[in-house]
């Protein structure tokens, strides 16, 4: 999009974002991100800058790679999601250790992104090796992602061969809600007065909402 087609209120921001991209600096504290600091948390400003750069086609390789390697897992997750599902995106993906990320939620996002890339022998080799890492199979959510990867990239012996629906278990659900680092339900939702305030309160959700809303 040319500058002449940018809305006037975005023109100044576009210039700042281009400056960040050109300089290749850490956009957490530089250029366009700095003007948002009073409103957003530092990682929120960086995420905002990341998607703004991506949206105007100004997210260059160096800036994107820095976001993939950033110390903030939330920024790493968004950098992974912003990768295009093409050769350039694949090369950037494998230039960072995101499929071994110590933050399991970020690792799951990396697995999902890996499923979006076209199937080639190199990716099949990587997918076949992922179950060798105990954390990838011990965590139910990561193992589900492995199952998806195995099916999409046609790699046998990855994940579970047959997916079974287990009966409801309130205790297991409670443990997952409060303690799972992958689901991270309690970071956004509240049950029995415990949890975050980002999403709706879930007390009594089964009788307050229909299946379509819950799913």
Describe the structure.
This protein is mostly helical and 215 residues long. The chain has helices at residues 8-23, 31-34, 42-55, 61-68, 73-81, 87-94, 104-116, 121-129, 134-138, 140-152, 170-179, 205-208, 211-214, and strands at residues 190-191, 194-195. A hairpin with a 2-residue loop joins β1 (190-191) and β2 (194-195).
Taking the sheet with the most strands, its summary is: 2 strands, antiparallel
Distance from first to last alpha carbon? 37 Å
**What is the succession of H and E elements?**
HHHHHHHHHHHEEHH
Kindly estimate the percentage of residues that lie in beta strands according to DSSP.
Answer: under 5%
Give unreliable regions as ranges.
1-14, 16-41
Query: Count of helical segments?
Result: 13
Helix content: 40-55%
Cα gyration radius (Å) = 20 Å
Strand order, biggest sheet? 1-2
Q: Care to count the β-strands?
A: 2
Mean pLDDT: 78
Q: How many domains make up the coordinates?
A: 3
| CA-based shape | globular
Structural class: mainly alpha
């Amino acid at each position: 999009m040319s500058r002449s087609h940018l809305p006037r209120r975005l023109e100044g921001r576009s210039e700042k974002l281009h400056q960040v991209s050109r300089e290749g600096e850490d956009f957490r504290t530089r250029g366009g991100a700095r003007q948002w600091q009073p409103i957003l948390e530092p990682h929120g400003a960086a995420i905002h800058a990341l998607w703004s750069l991506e949206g105007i086609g100004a997210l260059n390789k160096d800036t994107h790679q820095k976001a993939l390697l950033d110390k903030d897992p939330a920024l790493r997750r968004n950098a992974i999601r912003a990768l295009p599902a093409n050769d350039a995106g694949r090369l950037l993906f494998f230039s960072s250790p995101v499929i071994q990320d110590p933050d399991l939620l970020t690792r799951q996002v990396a697995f999902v992104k890996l499923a979006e890339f076209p199937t080639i022998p190199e990716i099949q080799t990587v997918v076949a090796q992922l179950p060798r890492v105990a954390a990838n199979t011990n965590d139910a959510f990561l193992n589900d992602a492995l199952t998806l990867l195995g099916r999409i990239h046609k790699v046998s012996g990855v994940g579970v061969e047959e997916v079974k629906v287990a009966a409801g278990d309130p205790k297991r659900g409670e443990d997952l809600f409060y303690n799972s680092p992958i689901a991270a339900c309690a970071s956004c939702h509240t049950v029995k007065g415990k949890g975050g305030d980002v999403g709706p309160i879930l007390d009594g959700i089964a009788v307050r909402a229909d299946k379509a809303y819950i799913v």
